[in-house]
Amino acid sequence: MSDAEAARIAAEAFAERFGQQPDGVWAAPGRVNVIGEHTDYNGGFVLPVALPHTTRAAVARRDDGLLVLASVQHPGEDAEVAVGDLEPGRPGGWAGYAAGVVHGLAGSVPGGLSILVDGDVPSGAGLSSSAALSCSVALAVRDLLGLDLDADALIDVARRAENDFVGAPTGVLDQSASVLCRAGSALFLDTRDGTREQVPLDLAAAGLALLVIDTGTTHDHAEGGYRERRRQCEEAAKALGVDLLREIDDVAALAPPLAGAPDGDVLLRRARHVVTEDARVLQVVAALREDADPRAIGPVLTAGHASLRDDFEVSVPLIDVCVDAALDAGAHGARMVGGGFGGSVVALVDADAVDAVTAAVTDRFAGESQPAPRTFVVVPSAGARRLA
Ligand code: GLA
Q1: Which of 192, 246, 343, 357 is a plausible cystine mate for 329, CB 3.0–4.6 Å?
Q2: Domains of the chain and any CATH numbers
Q3: pLDDT-based confidence at residue 223 (cuts at 50, 70, 90)
Q4: What is the DSSP string of 49-113?
């Protein structure tokens, strides 16, 4: 769908719900991470691309002090609350991501806002539909109210909405990708100091495609495993005498201090994932910068999956089945994306093998009595922007 059409549809839905035209329409994309998983909250490196799929926010100012939120994807789940009464967890559900942004900027939202969101980022698939929502609203509020917020401040507002208002302990990967990514490039981001570089990624020119396979297994990292992994990384860093695991670049340095720590074996494996994953990001970026054949990054992606599966232990059996099936069908590399515990797999495949790989994965899923996964090819797309 073109930006113009997406804006028209969102504006129409807004007019139907609120009986007036919106003041504008903004969009922010979901993301798929090429490599660099569970590194962001360790101050490490990430390399995401933006999806063509976005969340659109159609917004108008109000003068009654209310925040009114409606979603095309969540009919009957509108939220209406005075801006001054917003507090973490209230409203909850989908509306919390938008409300959290407004809460974070509440001092700057005098009269209230009407917000209608519409989107096509698959939710619960590890593709950052929540960041697409929070970033689209953050950009809308900034532009509409003329707030002096640069990209880093926007990312921070969106991340705090998720961390502090919704209570999802994410790092900064998803929001950074949604705001900073550009069409045709992957975003190489150093999460420790925010340094970034757009790395051109034209896989089609090399006869390749980045295939996303949404396995349909749900992931819920608002609690549980994700939170525990963060804690373990902090513990490992402490035992190693560093603030962030990013500061360590030699796996050989991990064993001696961690071996003696309580849960030393677990902490060692968690830290080893982070340290080797940072190295994998650098390896992939170097290969892409050198204009080497991008097929060379395939085995690095697959090694990243093995590390997430065995050392970080955030994969699940169906994701592993999916990765194996893609590799068996000729993918150059494949790995789970996002926080884990379900969600999607990304595979680097020859463009003319997309159908064969999709069919092979679908067959393997049928053999496991699982419904066919949803698949699509990602073209690195634009970051958050005003549509109308
Ligand atoms: C989720 C989080 C991100 C990041 C990834 C794992 O998507 O929101 O901050 O930690 O998991 O790389």
Answers
A1: 357
A2: 3-198 (3.30.230.10), 202-378 (3.30.70.890)
A3: low
A4: EEEEEEEEEEEEE-SSSEEEEEETTSTT--EEEEGGG-BTTBS-TTHHHHHHHHHHTGGG--SEE
Residue nearest to atom 11 of ligand 1 (CA): 339
pLDDT for the residue numbered 292: 83
Backbone phi, then psi, for 120, in 5-degree steps?
-135, 20
**Which is it for strands 48-61 and 24-33: parallel, antiparallel or unpaired?**
antiparallel
**The residue type at 286:** A
- Secondary structure (3-state) at 360: helix
Of residues 40, 118, 120, 174, which has the active-site annotation?
174
Question: Does the C-beta of 294 come closer than 6 Å to ligand 1?
Answer: no
| Selection from 184, 159, 176, 145 nearest residue 44 by Cα | 176
**Does 260 have pLDDT greater than 90?**
no
Count CB neighbours of 123 within 10 A.
18
Model pLDDT, residue 109: 82
User: Do 77 and 95 contact (CB within 8 A), yes or no?
Assistant: yes
143: pLDDT strictly greater than 80: yes
Evaluate whether 217 touches 79 at the Cβ level (below 8 Å): no
Respond yes or no: is residue 174 known to be catalytic: yes
In this prediction, residue 274 has a pLDDT band, given cuts at 50, 70 and 90, of: very high
Percent of the chain exceeding pLDDT 90 equals 94
Query: Which amino acid is present at 208?
Result: L
Nearest CA to ligand 1 atom 1: 339
Q: Of 351, 293, 360, which is closest to residue 321 (Cα–Cα)? A: 360
Q: How many CB atoms lie within 10 A of CB 282?
A: 16
- Does the CB atom of residue 278 touch ligand 1 within 6 A? no
Strands 185-190 and 112-119 come out as unpaired
- Pick the residue whose CA is nearest to atom 8 on ligand 1: 170
Structure-token pair, residue 55:
């969340």
Residue among 34, 170, 281, 346 to mutate when testing ligand 1 (max atoms within 8 A of CB): 170
Question: Tens digits of per-residue pLDDT, 31-78?
Answer: 999 999 999 999 999 999 999 999 999 999 999 999 999 999 999 999
339 CB near ligand 1 (under 6 Å): yes
pLDDT digits (tens, 9 = 90+) for 10-28: 999 999 999 999 999 999 9
